[in-house]
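This follows on from our talk about sequence and fold. Go ahead and set the record down below:
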Amino acid sequence: MFSARLLCLSTLAVAVVAANLLQNPGFEQWNDDSTPSFWTVESRTRTGVYLETDTVAAGVSACRLVRRVSGTGNNAGVLQRVPVLPGRRYELSVWAWDDREDVLLRPYVTWRSPDSSYIRSKSLGATADSVGWQLLTGSDTAPPDSGFADIILRTYGTTNAVPGNRVLVDEVWFGTATGSPDTVRLWFTSDSLARQLIAFFDSARVSIDYCCYNSSRPDVSLALIRAHNRGVRVRVITDNTRLDDQWVAYLRGSGIIVWSDSGSSGSSNYMHHKFALRDLADADSTNDWLWNSSYNPNDGEVNADYALEVPSSELARAFRLEFEQMWGDTGSIPDPARARFHRTKTDVLPTHEFTVNGRRVRLYFSPQNRVVDTISSLAEQAGRELGFAVNAFTYDVLGLAMLDRHQHGITVFGTFDRANTGDPASQFWRLRPEGVPVLIDSYPFGSGTVHEKIMVVDSAITICGSANWSNNANFSNDENTLIIYDETLAARFLAEIVARYCEAGGTYPPAVAEPNQPILVHYPVGLSSPGRAGLADGGDCYDVLGRRVTGPVRAGVYFLALPGRRPQSVVVLR
């Protein structure tokens, strides 16, 4: 049976240390204003379902359930069906807002057989009237003959209840029970990273330190200005190439100081960080949050990116040491005389080891810690599998480490961003000719760019941050890299890596034959007289659309993939 517990809290624990089996658990995605994605609406005549943006538990939206009938008893709501394993214990938690006397929220789990036949249902109980978000949680063991569970969120009317009253629901969690709360949040592009970042800024009460290579979205700038206008101390650092951008002028015109590496030695290198810190400027360490990502919130851009929100004072304060080394001061005004960027920075962290919710985390900055060398060292230690998705990867040491692992029978696979494989130094051209299953991305949204820099080693270690895997990131740019030792978080990052890989035409587990993907990369051009596409020394010929050409070639550009050699583009003239 479900053993229900009711907690009324002013701050939120967002998840549990295990995979959430629900999709769109925070009601951030909607097909329209009355249909949350992945949820089924039971009956619109008994309970109305609406997008709620004014009162939310986390993120930028919740679900509002409005009772449309009178009297006592259950009405209707929303449900989602998920697969379960018989005999395994599961936990359900739901955040609810209930400040009306005659309507309640009553969450259920309905267990069903593999053919969807009904087995039994259990309730978590009901909400209590309270101004504020409350958490309902409970756990139960899946019956021996179960195959699915329906997670049902319904309104419930008390005596003499009248139509029109509502309850709010947000941040639903259902998965194997561990009893260990966790507040680390992991977002990907499908979670609307800009909206999550805006919500992060809107929650600030004391201070925001924002360090980002580029940030041209007007709604993100407006969130910073709103914070500044309500008395939050806002400090911003960006790359010197952004100083003439409109978003910088907008912030400065609103009274926010925007600092950069423009006066520093090596300003031609990138200030490439993408992190933010919230509420570190007071004495309360419990409200300290870190936002760390691969994401530049630019107007009109949609790339494959990730973001982490971490409630760790120790880790956030380590990032603040990096921030203030570039700011040149601990106060509101930067000090040009003391500010250090790029190769003038020193290692100011007292430790690189942290513990966040029981998991080990390591943090390194570039160029003072040479983060790509650290990544290469971890790659060398892979014992079973190494998967990755990366924007730019030109660092020879890391490429050789991956090749060595592949040659020792370790599964190595990954996806390269299409545009960056146009660099002759790309390690794609080291790995693929040796049979390593690496692919060029086919990301279908926005500009079609894989902008992530993520790696998972042995399904247990996640490497993420701002740093591409390049000489510049290792020796010159301002960058950060997090190394997280946690199988649950690694599973979520690995799912993202596999999604990009399968999207590019691969299968998982990867097959060595998969590097036959067409190559669409320009290299120094050679000339060829007209002829047939067949090559005397073997290999394949592709046109600019990636189609394999076997017959006579017409005038145009072609790409020759020769065994053991990098592909060459060839211009055929008539």
Notes: DSSP finds nine helices and 34 strands in the chain. Residues 1-17, 515-537 have pLDDT under 50 and may be disordered. The chain has four domains: 5-182, 187-350, 364-516, 526-572. The CA atoms of residues 210 and 275 lie 6 Å apart.
